[in-house]
Amino acid sequence: MATTEEIRAKLAELVNDIAGTPVEKVQLDKSFVDDLDVDSLAMVEIIVGCEEAFSVTIPDEESKNLVTVGDAVAYIEAHQA
Amino acid sequence: MLASSGAPYARILSVGSAIPSRVVTNADMCQWIESTDEWIQQRTGIAERRWIGPDESVRTLALAAARTAIDRSSLPLGEIDCLILSTVSFFQQTPALAPMLAAELGLRDAAAYDISAACAGFCYGIAQAEALIRAGQAHNVVVIGAETLSRMTDVTDRSTAFLFADGAGAVVVGGSDEPGIGPVVWGSDGEHNEVIWQTAEWDEALRLGAEPKIGMNGQAVFKWATSFIATAAKRALEAAGLSPEELDVFLPHQANNRITDTMLRYLKLPERVVVARTIKKYGNNSAASIPIAMDELLSTGQAKSGQTALIIGFGAGLVYAGQVIKLP
Fold it and tell me: Would you list the DSSP string of B111-175?
């Protein structure tokens, strides 16, 4: 089981890879869209990347609720295998 | 009873394309929808698209593309015995367009039929042509992808209006002593047919007095294309026994540059691999996008005859098909 910090760090790598956002900016309180230059398509890529990296399924209706990095980390923590 | 047997392998002999005359820029598009050139380019990679003008139709585009491909094949017309047309935008249900095209092209008594596999249609057609030739059911097959999606575009839908376009591309496929078309990786997922839809069935549309349009859940398509379809592209490469290092050209359906980018990240293709980006000038013209891109890359010298290319189409159905080919 990955820890909160491990999930955040991996997520930061994904966001950097997909949207080019510096990894250090990807903190729990940051909004993907408002703070991290992530547009709707990049958000879909990040969701897919999370599903692969953490072996979780994130349904479309859930992904709408993942506004901040903290939201995503909490979802992954709660649902990882 | 006798049974047929055909050529050991099949390959694409030639390619041709037809681009409609009317240029529709993003600025034109922004007359109808609230958007900007920058937003459209950033989300899709499309700077402009081509729509049919007054004297153009899916029939004229298909004919022009096929005629060029046949001329370039140098085959006598009498040796072409099958024509497969993929389209979703020929608005006559019966007879099919393919027999009329065959007649106008001078292909006497050729088997001719339309298929409907949306943006995967060209690759579906290539799979059929390859199988027909190897089975001895046909010797040389014209495969055409032709679309006039502008007729099905809701220009007021700000999530799709800027995507769809018109055009046609065609190839001639013939027998070969060496493999020129790899095994097809294909499939469908009708459970998700609601992801890309037609706004009304024809009988309902006639009652309403409005032509049906295409609707699309863009994010759902994006997710499918960048996950499942990216892995299908990898499977097509593996099915042909190739590693990414052995590929020269990547020719995905021109749905969205961002989909292409994500596929590239997943496939880890070497930097030297030439990647089709014709969506920038031509938009998403469904079944026509792959042969148009093929023709463009070859005619501009970006790709060369004999190089190895991965083609993959995916779209409404949901349906997909991909294979490795040798460029004509």
Answer: EEEEE--GGGHHHHHHHHHHHHHHHTS-SEEEEEEEEEGGGG--TT-TTTTTTB-EEEEEEEEEE
